[in-house]
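Standup notes
- DV: blocked on the single-chain target, sequence here:
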Amino acid sequence: MSVGLFRLTFLAACASALLWAAVADAGPPQGGIPMDLYGPTTYLSRCSLLHGDTVIWNCYVTRLLADIERSHDPANELPRIDRKVHAGHGYLEVNCHMLMHVVGRMYARRHHITLANLQHYLPRSNDPGCSAGFGMGIVMTLGGQIGRLGPDGAIKLCMRAPTRFRSYTCIHTLGHAYMRLYHGQLAYGVRACEALPASQAPDCAQGAYHDYWLGIAGRDSASRTRHAVTSARVLCVRAIRSFVRPCWYRYFVELPPKQLPDNAAGVRRLCRGLAGLQRVGCVGAASLITSPDPFIQMRVCAALRGDAAGCVYGLNVQNLATAAGPRRVRLIEDCVRLPVSARGRCYEWLGTALAVVTNGRFGRLGCGWLASADGRLCVAGANRMNQALVTFS
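- DV (later): unblocked, structure below
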């Protein structure tokens, strides 16, 4: 398809986009990594006393939405909810991001949020759980408006975010929004991302592929097209080179294997027979689901030898967003556990990822705790934090 024809098709789709129904999903999404459904929690604790997956899910959606509505200030209420959820643990802490996708979409429709007033509602938080989920839910409803902005306008919208983490989240969500605009037609969603600047397009593409896998799994109201490819081994080989890792990254999260990997052998099993960039993408995706704890993941990466460099791209660094500074330093110091051939990539990537979750502070303050050569690699990575992250959660 020519660029001109693509633009005409894009504008036509914008003009004919349907309004989504303003109702909650009927219960928890199917598929995905098994969650702790009944773990104890203290915030909104009445929901955890109920029985049945659908009843519990809808209870949390309803109560979370009610709390946000009562506040009349979601931008400041979401950070407070983040703190309550982390203190309460259990089901809500594990599932809050996906719950807030639903809540954010409902809130956006109720309050007729537009691109013009979007910044008034977005959470003032870098938390990857509830706040990020709510913001993504809102932006998902704005596909038609985002389409009319064009690629330059869409990127300008995202880059106005006050932190790098939030600008990345916005760009990732553009991919979701394009997919919702095109009713799950991956070719159009990916092509919309490809029209963005090369420094940001892969992060948009990760959102588009993520929405595609959500649709295959029957989750989060994402669309699934007829005759859709259901295997990353088939789909991702068709992707352009810069989109291969984004294609793989969320595959195992939404379509988990029967036996979840918790060691190097498990990762190798999932990626058996793959080579080159496809293997790197698969290893990063498999690493992502080994553990939510990046320190445990690092031990898995250390045992992967030749695949260790690809493994570090799946580290759940975002889970250290609210951690004390010494824990972030300790994580990057653990790069020494990896084979020599992978250490440079590890220092650079963690320099980038830790700079993102601290809005650049780690590059200025954290990298200096490393030995000189390792510290320089860390700083070089931190300096690239505004480039495409490709496999960031």
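- Follow-up: DSSP finds 22 helices and no strands in the chain.
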